[in-house]
């Protein structure tokens, strides 16, 4: 992979809440995110941190992670505690769409996309570890992530893929023929075919990424898929993943009890519908850590983080 370009930070916007894990942009350049205390926030005026406005749209009562804007002034929310939610952005009303799958409680719901036929596809990162112990799944390499589908009008999700390594972000191809799924624990993107002769099959889309992909976002069908890298590759971790199950499980028990501090190296990628890398941007010794999401808004790149108390606004690279 070519040497990365510089991810140039411009400003930091304090949003009054910890852990804006996912960021998405609306058509007016405003950014929506969810924070640790359950609030769904909208941030306007990103180009001037001193006058940026933060508005509370709703409270889920859980822990919102991945977001997906819908066309009818509504928002899909993957809540790590409550399941798949729908939020009315005008009234702030929160409705649970699905909270169980295959007779078990739906936990660690991570990211979602909606198709033009109103079906919803979403991921579950881990069936073994809760959000607050996410590092245990990364270390143990459990392969318990899932891709699910909720048909229009249904309350019962269908399991499409199992065995994913910490399934995370989701994005649609331009023609809705396939989904791209981020597997954080495997440092890869996986393609799941929705139509055509390969419908229902999965295959590698982009492998051996320079970091661990988290949330992914696409603003328009003709734009790239932006991929956040929550951390760089860790060679000892790659080696551990090839060890016996008992060894990985023992290491995970230690990891969930040890204090964690993210690395100062952050990065994002942009990929096209063939899996080719359009942009690779990175920044070393960053004061803003653990980038778990990225979107384009108001002519800039906006970063979110499970770790930080605000969002970072960066320079957007020239189109290629």
TrEMBL record:
Name of the protein in question: SMP-30/gluconolactonase/LRE family protein
Top-level lineage group: Bacteria
Keywords in alphabetical order: Glycoprotein, Phosphoprotein
InterPro entries: 6-blade_b-propeller_TolB-like, Strictosidine_synth_cons-reg
Matching Gene3D superfamilies: TolB, C-terminal domain
Domain Strictosidine synthase conserved region: 114-196
Entry keyword Protein biosynthesis: no
Family: Belongs to the strictosidine synthase family.
SUPFAM superfamilies for the chain: Calcium-dependent phosphotriesterase (SSF63829)
Organism whose genome encodes this protein: Streptomyces spinosisporus
